[in-house]
Every structure is written in structure tokens, then in C-alpha cells.
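G.,

No rush on this.
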Amino acid sequence: MSSWSLFGRIKDMSGHSKWSTIKHQKAIEDNKRGAVFTKIAKKIHIAVKKGGSGDINSNPFLRACVDEARAVNMPMENIKRAVDKGLGIGGVDNSEEILYEAYSREGVGILITAVTDNRNRTASELNLVLNKHEAKLGGPGSVSYMKTISPLPLIKLDELSKENVEALLEALSSLDDVVEVWSNIDK
């Protein structure tokens, strides 16, 4: 089915070389991996600040983040760079962890953990996504109390509402500064 081009490369049915197709697919996969590495690096950075140490043996927060990084084959060089950034080696760092609380239009509580160096930019990006999905930011403690209740109050939704909430959660997760999104939706 494939034919040879003048330059000796095999072309696929659309007339493009297979290398061109592979190159584009690889670029997409690399971008996805990079986004995952960035989120984990931010978690490592905050774990170092929380634990006060860059040693994984004395900092349980850091140990959990490094295990997560190893699970997705993050290079050790990237892990070390994130630890150094958390320790303040190589420059001033003013990143901070912020917890945002929101409610979807279906009444689902959402906790959004973000690591940012610019609170206003992050809040603006979150508000944009929340407004697009008809959700609203809540006040401090409006959702976080649910994580302390046992058993946790889960919300059951019909299929359409569940799809809407999952689209909102996916949109929030895709933001650069957001490292974790939690909700009380019953899966």
C-alpha cells in the first residue's frame, strides 16, 4: 500500500513520510510527559519547603513525591533540580502552595491545590475555567471540612451531570499551576 518517494522515504497513504507522522506523535507525547514532570516538580518543591529538608529519609512529604516521580520515570536530574529549587539553591524562589475551594453548578465540592509565584494570575485562570463551567469559588473552609468528615459525603450524579463535572475537573487539572484536584463526586 505504501510507495517510495523520490528521496527514498516511505510515504503513508496520505502522502506524508512516516517520519513526519512519528515526529508529530512524539512531540505530542513529549508535551504530555513534560506537563506531568512539571506538576511533580512543583510537588517536590513544596514538599521540600513543608518538610524543611532535601533528604528523602527525613522528609516523608519529599519521599512520597520522589516515589511518584520515579513511577512516571522522571529523570533524577529533574528531581534534584526541583529539590534544589525548594531549598533555595540557585536563586530566590517565592512560589507558594495555595488551596482554592469551589462548587460546581451540580453542588459538587472541589479542592484545588496550586503552586504559584503569582496569586493573582492563578486566581484569574481558575476563575476563568470555573465560570466557563458555571462553577464558583467558595470561601475558606467551605469544602475542606468535607475531607475531615467520616464517612465522606459523596454526591451521586446522573450521567450528563457527571460528564459536566468531569470536564470541569479535567480543565482545572490541565492548568499549569494546579498540582492536584479533589472532589466529592461518587465515581
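When you get to it, here's the other one too:
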Amino acid sequence: MASAKTATLTFRIEPELKEAVRLASVNEHRSIANMIAVMIRDYCGRVGVEIQELPTLPVKGARKAKPRKSNH
């Protein structure tokens, strides 16, 4: 689910909403950014908005994994 890169999102919300998200993130042992992502995914799932995962680009200098030999 996690991609190699992230995007920045900056917005303003009411202080009481920020505090509610902070408390939710503490209760879930998540960062605020991760809690917001979880909330967005949950909402999109409930209302039928599909989230299309973008393909990850290979990391420069990384080697491709060799296929494992099967014992069967």
C-alpha cells in the first residue's frame, strides 16, 4: 500500500477538528498524517470512490530480486 514517494497536502481546519484527529491518532498509535490517510481511505471505501494506486518507480541503483528456485 505504501508508495516510494509521498505528496504534501496543506490545508486549514478548525482547531477542534485538528484536536479530534490528534486524539484519534494517539488512540490508534499512528501519526496524524497516517491517521488522515486512514480516514480518507475509509471514507472513500464507504462512498464508493476508487483509489487507484500509482505504480512505484524503481529506486535508482537498486537491483531486481532474483527469482527463487522452487523445491517442488
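The mean pLDDT is 86. Residues 15-47 form one domain.

Enjoy the weekend,
O.
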